[in-house]
Amino acid sequence: MDVISFGSVFLELVFGHVPALPRPGQEIFAEEFAISVGGAVTSATAAARTGARAAVCAELGDDLGGRVVTEHCEREGVDLSPSLRVARRATGITMVLNYDGDRSFVTHVPPRPAQDAPELSRWADVLRSYRPAWCYVHAGIGVADFLEAARAQGSRIYLDVSLNGIGRSAEAVLDCIPLADVFVPNEAELIALTGSDSADAAIATAGTWGTPVVVKRGAAGAVVVGPDGAVRVSEGVTNVTVRDLTGAGDSFAGAMIGKLLRGMPLAEAVVAANRAGGEAAGRLGAVGPVEVAGLSSVLPGLGLARKESG
Questions:
Q1: What does the DSSP 8-state code read for residue 199?
Q2: 177-186: per-residue pLDDT in tens?
Q3: pTM of this prediction?
C-alpha cells in the first residue's frame, strides 16, 4: 500500500457563496449547493488521482454517509479495506457555509459507544497489517505512540494539524512533530501552535524543530522550511474563482504524497500540491460533488425569476 489516510469521514452538505451568516431567525439563500464527502477520504482521493495506491482507515457506519463514501471510493479506486464497518451510525455530517472568501462549519459526529475500543488502537493493527509507505494523520492527543510505531516499521509520516487539535492540546501536537517526515500546517495553525504574532516569526520557530515543515499559504503557495532556511514556493498556483476551500488542504496533502512516492524532491512535490489545492478551491465539496442515489448533487442558484407551467 502506498498511503493510508487515518481519521474520520464525513458527508458534506455544501452551500455556495452566501452574503453573510444568518442571524437568529433569519434565512439566507445560497447561490449553489452540492453534496460531497470529506475527512480522511479527501487526501486519499487526491493521492489516488496521482496514480498512488491509496486507502482510508476510518469507521464506516450503517448510514447514508457511509454509503456515499463507499460509492465515491469505488469510483475513485480508493481502498476501504483498512476501514471498520459498524452496524450503527458513525459517519459525521457537516454543513459547509461559504462566505467572505472562507467557510464555516456546523458538524455532528455520532457518539461512539463507550465499550468500543479506541480508534487509535485499531490504527496500530492496520499499520502492522498493511505496512503503508506513507501514513497521513493529524497530530493530537495519543497520536505520538502511533507515529513511533509507524517509524519503527519504516512507514513515512505526513503530519497534518487543525486549530481544534491545537486548542485541545498544543503540547500533544508538538510531541508529534519530531516523529514526522514532514509537518504541514497552514499559516493560521502555525501561528496558533507557536504563539507567534506573525507568520514570519512562526516560520522562524518552525525552522528550529528539525522536521521539514511545509506551511500552506493558500493563493500565495507554500513555504518549505528546513535546516537551510525557508523557501517560498508559488509555482503551481493557478488563478481560480474560489468556490469552497474545504478540500484544499487535504487535496494538497494527497497530491504531495503522490509525488513524494515517485521520488520527487520536497520542493517540487509542493508545486504539484499547490496545483491540486487550487483546483480543489475551485469546486464545491472536499472531493467535488458526488452523486447520491441518482440525485444531481450540484444545484445552481435558480435566480429570482420562475417560469410558470401551463
A1: H
A2: 999 999 999 9
A3: 0.90
